[in-house]
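Dear Dr. H.,

I hope your travels went smoothly. While you were away I took the liberty of generating a structure for the chain from your last submission, since the lab meeting agenda had it listed for discussion. I wanted you to have the full record in hand beforehand rather than looking at slides cold. The sequence, exactly as received, is reproduced here:
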Amino acid sequence: MDAFFRRAWNLAGLVIVLVSLIGGSSARAQGIGFGGGGPPGGQGGGGPIESVVPRGSTRPTGVNGQVSRELDDFGGLSGGRARGGNSPGSPLLSGFSRSPGDLDEDKLGHPLGAPGSEAFRRVNAPPIPTPGGRIGPSGLVSPAPEPRSLSSIHLPGGLERQRDRAETIRQKVTHPNFDPISASSHPTPALVTSLEDPGPEDGLTLDRAIDLLIQQNLDLMALRYEITKSQADILTAGLRTNPILNASSQLVPYGEYTVERPGGSGGQPQYGVNVALPIDVSRKRRARVAVASQARRVSEAQLQNAVRSLIDNLYTAYVNVLAARESARFSADFLAGITHILEQAEDDLRRKQTDAEEAKADARNGPEVRKKAEQAVKDASRAVDALRDQAQQARFQVRRTAHALDRTRVILAQLLNLPQDQADSLQLRARLREFYPLSAPSEVLFRTALESRPDLAAYRLGLRRAEADVLLARANRIPDIYLVYQPYTLQSGRAFGVKDTYSWAVGVNVAMPVFNRNQGNIARASANVSQTQIELTSIERRVLDDVKEAIRDFQLSEEEMLELERHVLPSARRALDDGYAQYREDPSQVSEYVDHQKDYNEVLQQYRNVLTEHRQNMLQLNTVLGVRIMP
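The corresponding predicted structure, in token form, is as follows:
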């Protein structure tokens, strides 16, 4: 019975050892042990401690330079490390492209101020032409890769980094092509005298559209979760390293101890349980929390920049609806006007046909009178045919502009996340023609942009995040110290018929930073600070160039609008009126009248284009400044 009990006890000890080997491999990696009958984790000396690098630093590599994935798990020896994906300020771990729903995917943009950054391959990356926005100045259309679904940039050692300049590449809203026939050679509006209609009183204003965009846009709803994920990163970064429980059995014989073969330590098997408590002497946890907190601030600034870009998309879509509405109104007015002129021409034709029949029936009229009457009928008939062509083109134009208006409404409704039935009946309350001079000199606008642009704020915060990474890399020079306490040690005396003995032990396990003091990661993080400073200077210069370009575009379109209103439009209208008067006096002049009408329509088309461009340039100033100064 005693032999059976000993074997059962030895088997139980062996099971405990196996469990310790499987579940406590991290303890072996730390090499926890002290003197006596061998280390608590097994007989023999302590093993080497692996380098544990928490979030924010370059990861240690394993076989063939591949990144060790074992060190990425939360709650391991390194404690919390926060999200290891391309959150602001952290290198990517995966060698694969990001996919929708990936926990590590950061949809606000790529890291700012993080070690592992890769400054190459940023130019000549084509933007993604998605419906919903228009291309603007360089500060709005990043020359860097798209922050969402571009292929990864692979770095040596299995690291990769996706990065842009904290700017979401804006979706492209193209100006609607109101008619497939060239507007310069075919009539659009003509004989239009009514002023621009601002729309119904309960129509959608630009202010209300911005409110709806912020409240209902699905992209913004999704991007807001990046802030929640960043907050979770802070929680994870603050997690402490778990203590390690280890159970072991030592000096268990194969068979039985005898007097001739007593074994070590007096031939007494030893069973023990110990706990290893990690002590963060270099305050790595505090440094991780600081890095994650700075990353959250970067994410907030990047979210603000995403809102700025979406509002600029809204500006374009809103102005496109106004332009399409004006084209539809001009086309309808032209159709009404040309139809009225056609009706007059048809009345003239019928009257002249009657006069010609009467002149032919009157025997008193000579051949010259009859020939003149017939010529008048021919001229009136040619005029009717020419005007019918104009009316047919006008009806075609009305259909095309109505379709263009519907398309622009759909794009605007998509940005605002409105249902389809509301998109079909969407009415705006605004004018295409607005005149507001610049409210401040250029120097004030430059200063406003440098202070207000959220993409600049994201880079400034990214610089702080890079500086926090340096502190974290320095904290990682010293690994955790493990305090080992073994409260229970049993030495069995059954083999010799004596009582069991109990004891305790205490020890400490310290990895000596003789060779690896994280020198490479410290140098990398320090270089990244300098890199981020240079990038910040570059984007500040680009912002100033964007403001200068926006001011120049605004002033140019304003001058063109006023020039057209003061000189070109009145002159073209007088020429059209003169041509119409000549046509009314002599229907044979219908071709000259049609030519005047085409010239007038070209001027009107140019005027509408300038109005659209100037309205967009006004709103573009709001975007490049980061604040709204234009209504």
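Two observations you may find useful: Residues 444 and 450 are 10 Å apart (CA to CA). Residues 2-72+243-279+479-512 form one domain.

With kind regards,
E. W.
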